[in-house]
Amino acid sequence: MEVHILVSASSSGAENYEAAVLAAGGIPHAAYCPADRTEYDGLLLCGGGDIDPCRFGQENWASSEIDPQRDASELALAASYLAAGKPVLGICRGLQILNVALGGTLLQDIGSTQVCFHTHAPGSSEDKVHAVHAEEGSLLERWYGPVFSVNSAHHQALDRIGEGLTVTARSESGLVEAVEHTALPLLALQYHPERMTGAHRRMDTVDGAPVFQWLIEQCRNRLEGR
C-alpha cells in the first residue's frame, strides 16, 4: 500500500527528509509553502528559520530568518491535518509550528548558558550532540530507552505547551526535546532525525529511522482502518 507524505520544507529543499521518508517506505512530496490541502496521507513539517513571534503574541527580540509566507502556510497545514486526524511529524521548526498552532508559545532564545550545548559554534556547520531523557511509556523511550544521545541545532525552544500536547522528552537542562498528542497521531521533535539515519547515520547518536517508520506505520494503519 502506497503512503504519500506531504513534506513542507524551506525554500532550500528537503533532500534529507525525502530520503528518510523513502527509506521508511513512504513516498515524499516536498514543497515550499504547499497549498492547504489534505489529500496526502500524512504531513511532515521540516526544520528552518524562526517563526514570527507575533504568531504567539510576542514582540520580536531574538527571532531571525523569519518567513511570514511559510509561517502562514504551515500553521494552516497543521490545523488542517490535525482536524482531519491524519498523522503529523514535526522536526525542529516543525515542533515549534505545531506548538504554536495549538496555542503554545516559544522561548525566542534559550540563552548563552544553554545555546552552546544545542547549536553549532560560529563558523561550523556540525550539529551538537547531547543526551535527552525520555518519559516512561513514550514513543522515544520505547525505541531508545530512558536516556540516549541526539543531535541538536537550535537557539529557540518550547515555552508554554500547546493544548493536547504532552512533553515526552527533555534535555538534561530541561528544554523540551519531544512532544506527543494525547488523542491524535502527532509526534514532534526538537532534534533532527533525518540527519541521524541512512547515509547520515552517526555512531554518537541513536538511529533516526524509527521516527519516520512511525509516521508511515500510522498512515498505513489509518488507511487500513486500524
TrEMBL record:
A Pfam family in this protein? Peptidase_C26
Keywords, in A-Z order: Hydrolase
Q: Recorded GO terms, molecular function?
A: hydrolase activity
Signal sequence span is none
Q: Which Gene3D superfamilies match?
A: 3.40.50.880
Q: Does the keyword Acetylation apply?
A: no
The entry's protein name is: Gamma-glutamyl-gamma-aminobutyrate hydrolase family protein
